[in-house]
Amino acid sequence: MLTSSTPTKHHTKWSDKQSKALSDLTEEFTLSTAQLEHLTAAFIDQMQSGLAGDQKSSDLAMIPTFVSGRPDGQERGSYLALDLGGTNLRVCLITLKGNHDVESNSKAFRVSDHLQEAHISELMDFIAISIKEFISSEHISSKIVEHPTDSDTLELGFTFSFPVAQTAIDAGMLLRWTKGFNCPGAVGNDIVQLLQEAIDRNKVNVHVAALVNDTVGTLLAHSYKHPNTFIGAIFGTGTNGAYVEATRSIKTMPTPTAKEMIINIEWGNFDKDKRILPVTPFDNKLDRESINPGIHIFEKMISGMYLGEITRNILLHLIDHRLLFDGTSSQKLNTHWSFETKFMSQIESDTSATLIPIAQILEQELGIYLNTQVDREIVKAVCELVGRRAARLSAMATAAVVRRGLSVEGHFAGYGYPLKLSEGDHVIGTAAGVNKNETAAEEIHEKTDSVAEHGGNLQQIHVGIDGSVFEHYPHFEERMVEGLTELLGSRAKDIVALGISKDGSGVGAALAALIATKNADHSC
Ligand code: ADP
Ligand code: MG
What is the domain range of residue 399? Predict the structure, then answer.
């Protein structure tokens, strides 16, 4: 049977050397269940050290987001959402209608090259004026009148996709600019305050209520549809995750006021010193030649910005050994980052016998005009190796977070999991885990079975996912589910539901504003 975990069958015309090279690569890129298990245990350990504030022993920052409380889909009201993270600024009016229903209107404003390097007050004035223009447009004003919030001031949730040290739901200091932005006057200052000052300067009746990371927005937006959402994850240009943690476990927080809080894991940085990740020479080459060598190695094995480049490195290796394209490359293929992750999706989608569509991609996108069917089979097999490894590592991070949630006593009770999968603070399946005689997957399987048998109310834990890799890469989800099954037992699909959640920076940011406003009311 050809399942998604079976590598492409070698064509009979493959030479012995080609078969040998591919079987070596398969060995290097295939993660066994035991390896995944080992990585999961380490991931959970690093989550715990991060929560304990032990920066030396953890590569996971585990940032408290000050977002406490999850939506149940009944929330109502109109909120503004703002998304700044690239060349476009998006302003949205989100109307939460209750009953899991949302209406949204949005407008994009281009952030010019000049503004990306102008003084921060100029950028913030531009944002304030864009908000003003958006809400004074007739269509939007009438919507606000239709669905008024309690006061005249519109509350706004701000998705700001740059590194920030958050100190409250509505305060965070910019640590550094990335992605081509470099506005003086911002680093070291509170982004919310800078925006609020510009809004006030421009006489716009808006209050910045919440500052959120895109993973948090994804989690919140998914919760509005599926109240059992526990994790938000991004598999796009980069990768990261956020989840709901019991505040008593967050040792880095001053006296907790709420029972739970969303944590931004910053999981792209897992195992940055490459102690346990099975990095190959192809990954190391990519890392060395990247703009941020030595960090985010996990992200570099998973996300859209990098998968194509890993594949390109492998193809060049095969060409140099005269095992592909008769030893001839092209100018395009020799160019850094020329092999897009999107091509891998297109290549893996080709299930025809002769793989002619792959020949077209090689020709049109990469300038490789001479290729045989064996060449195309090899290219496809390489994409499968890189793509499957990415999906299995994504499953690993997801399973680690789920296991942690299942293990913290009482934490998952609301999800129908009054399971005791841990002793004290020890999490199942880690070095200090409880039962050494069976794997964590077996143990979870047994416990979920027994809850089901005793009439327990097993509800799926929902994971909201955003990103083109998850959405468009063929078999990515299926391969993730395979990995999850190895790590969470054969009832994995009863435990975890993966789902696409695309409106983190709109609906998610609006919900963060709502949560912030409610919390502020309570504290008055
Ligand atoms: P972002 O993460 O920046 O918000 P996306 O979620 O759209 O944006 O992810 C963009 C990344 O996804 C890029 O790195 C791109 O290479 C990759 N990508 C785009 N289309 C596809 C596709 N069809 N298959 C796989 N990866 C894709
Ligand atoms: Mg995105």
Answer: 14-65+273-488
Residue 326: burial class (beta carbons within 10 Å; 0-12, 13-18, 19+): exposed
Residue corresponding to tokens 């993270």: 85
Examine the residue annotation and report whether 376 is marked as an active-site residue of this protein: no
Ligand 1, atom 27: closest residue by C-alpha? 342
Is residue 156 within 8 Å of residue 206, measured between CB atoms? yes
The CATH number covering residue 375 comes to 3.40.367.20
Q: Which residues, in sequence order, are CB contacts of 246 under 8 Å at separation 6+?
A: 259, 260, 408, 410, 411
Percent of the residues in the chain that have a pLDDT greater than 70, as a whole number: 87
Burial group, residue 284, by CB count within 10 angstroms (0-12, 13-18, 19+): middle
Whole-angstrom distance, CA of residue 223 vs CA of residue 97: 14
Identify the CA nearest to 211 among candidates 163, 243, 148, 154.
163
- Does the annotation count 352 as an active-site position? no
Which of the 8 DSSP states describes residue 505?
I
In a domain, 279, yes or no: yes
pLDDT band at 42; cut points 50, 70, 90 = very high
Are 291 and 427 found together in one domain?
yes
pTM value is: 0.90
Residue closest by Cα to atom 11 of ligand 1: 237
